[in-house]
Amino acid sequence: MEREFFEEIHSSDSADHRKLIKDNDLVILARDLVKNYEIGDFIVKAVDHVSLEIKRGDFFVIIGPSGAGKTTLLNLIGGLDLPDQGIIYYNGVLISSMNEESLAIFRLMNSGFIFQNYNLISTLTAEENVMFPMSLAGISLKDQREQAVSLLLKMGLENRREHLPFQLSAGEQQRVAIARALANKPPNILADEPTANLDKKTSIFIQKLFKELKEEGITMVIATHDDGLIELADRIIVFEDGMINNT
C-alpha cells in the first residue's frame, strides 16, 4: 500500500507547479476548483472556479455568510473531499487525483482537522478519542496514552479523561476534538468554525491556544466568524456564493 501511495505521488508531480510551490514556500496551491451538488433539479455551485495559495506558517482565515461554501472549500483543500474540476497541491503533492486510501494516509501524516460538530466517536472516552489517530499511525499504546494524557491536561480536561462524549459539555467536546487534531503533531491544522456555539470562556481558551500554535509556526486554515480568531489572521479571504470576493 505504501509503495503504491508514493508511486502515485511521484507520478502526480508537475515541474512547473513544484517550482512555484518551492519558490513561494506554499503548503496549498489550488487552481480553478469546482464543486457542485445536485439538489433535486437544481445544481448548487458550492465552490465555483476558485484558486488560492497558502504559505507555510500562514494563519489563513476564511470568512463569509453561512451557506457560502466555506466548509466545502475547507474540505477540498484539506483532502476530505475531491473537486469536480481543478487541481490541489498540498505540501507539494497533487491530492486532487488521489484515491481515498492514499488520501487517508496523506491526511494522517499531514493534517489535524477540527470540526464544528466535533465528530467525536460516541463509544470512546475522551482519552480514547485522542488516542485514535495515533493508533492509526502505528504509535505504541504506551506513547499514545502519554500523549493523550498530556494533551488533555493542556486542554484542562485531566479529570474528564474517562468520560464519553455525551457526558461532556459542548466546550469540553471541542477541546477533546482539538486535542485529537494535535495528537499526531501535524504541521497543518484545518478548522471549521472551531468556536461556534461555545461559551465565551471556551472561545477565549481556543483563541489563546491557536495563537500559541501560530507562534509555533503551524499552518492554520480556519473558517470562522470569531473576531478573536480573525484578529490573528495573516491573510483573510471573503467567501460568498462559492467564490472569493475580496473586493
What is the CATH topology assignment?
A: Rossmann fold
Task: Report the end-to-end length measured between terminal Cα atoms.
Answer: 46 Å
The CATH class designation is Alpha Beta
Query: Could you say how many structural domains there are in total?
Result: 1
How would you describe the shape? globular
Radius of gyration: 18 Å
Largest sheet: 6 strands, mixed
Describe this structure in words.
- It is a single chain.
- With 247 residues, the chain is of the alpha/beta class.
- The chain has a single domain, classed as P-loop containing nucleotide triphosphate hydrolases (Rossmann fold).
- Helices cover 40% and strands 26% of the residues.
- It is built from 9 helices and 10 strands.
- Strands 6-7-8-3-9-10 form a 6-stranded mixed sheet, with helices on both faces. Strands 2-1-4-5 form a 4-stranded antiparallel sheet, with helices on both faces.
- Helix 5 runs parallel beside helix 7.
- The termini are far apart.
- The relative contact order is 0.17.
Summarize the structure.
It is built from 9 helices and 10 strands.
